[in-house]
Amino acid sequence: MEDADAQGPSGASLPVFVFPSGIHFFVDEPHSHKQVLTLYNPYDFPLCYKILSTAPRKYSVIEPEGTLKPRCCVDIVIRHLAATVKANVGRSDKFRVQVQKHSEREVTGRKDVQATLHQSRRDAEVSEAQLRFEGTSAPTLRSRSSSTAPQQYSFPPPEYERQSSSQRTGSIGGGGGVAAAQQPLHGQSYLVVLAAIFCIAALMLPTHGDGQANSSSRVPEYLHLSVPQKLVAAYILGLVTMLLMRH
């Protein structure tokens, strides 16, 4: 394995945008053994990226490296290969996302994402509550002990059935809506359904400037949408529909 410090200069300063900031697997939910990590490129230049791991044999990553076009994002599928091994429950590993400008060889940005295997969602919530109750002293001790031994990062083994990661173009400025769509739908499916209902309702509203339709409409004029606004609603509805089909 390669040392993390050997992956690039210590002064890497290019911010790296990934979602989510932490990955959680659950033993009793087989569908959660596959998670999606989304990498965003809000810049006007392409980025080359690599995904490294402190435990490469425990995970399979589809497209662990590649090139990300300007103002695009890529979904990186991470599969836990040892989620049924009891010894792995409660253990945390780290994935390091490294990026560099397409025209440069040196790493210009990096971000670590922690991956944890839980027995169940309830156990994860209890552990999180205990950490909050303990306060800041326990995390401080853990951070000190972990800093004494540098962690090693290397490539996870390649996926035998390589699948192409999807790159989505468009505005990344509103981040929250797009990023939230990458999370598993359990617990948040109502938000997706609500978004779909809003989009459908927007498409059913009268179009601003359509005189014949507006004259017979009982909808207040301030609710009349323009054509670009309806196009945005249709685009969002398409994304939501794809998300529902994927899950």
TrEMBL record:
Residues 100-178 are annotated as: Disordered. It comes from the Eukaryota. InterPro entries: Ig-like_fold, MOSPD1/3, MSP_dom, PapD-like_sf. GO terms for cellular component: cytoplasm; membrane. Pfam families: Motile_Sperm. Residues 15-136 form the MSP domain. Keywords: Cytoplasm, Cytoskeleton, Membrane, Transmembrane, Transmembrane helix. Residues 137-154 have a biased composition (Polar residues). The chain crosses the membrane at residues 190-207, 227-245. It is a multi-pass membrane protein. It is found in: Membrane. Residues 100-113 have a biased composition (Basic and acidic residues). Its main location: membrane. PANTHER family: MOTILE SPERM DOMAIN-CONTAINING 1, MOTILE SPERM DOMAIN-CONTAINING PROTEIN 1. Central component in molecular interactions underlying sperm crawling. Forms an extensive filament system that extends from sperm villipoda, along the leading edge of the pseudopod. This is Major sperm protein. It comes from Plectus sambesii. The lineage of its organism: Eukaryota, Metazoa, Ecdysozoa, Nematoda, Chromadorea.
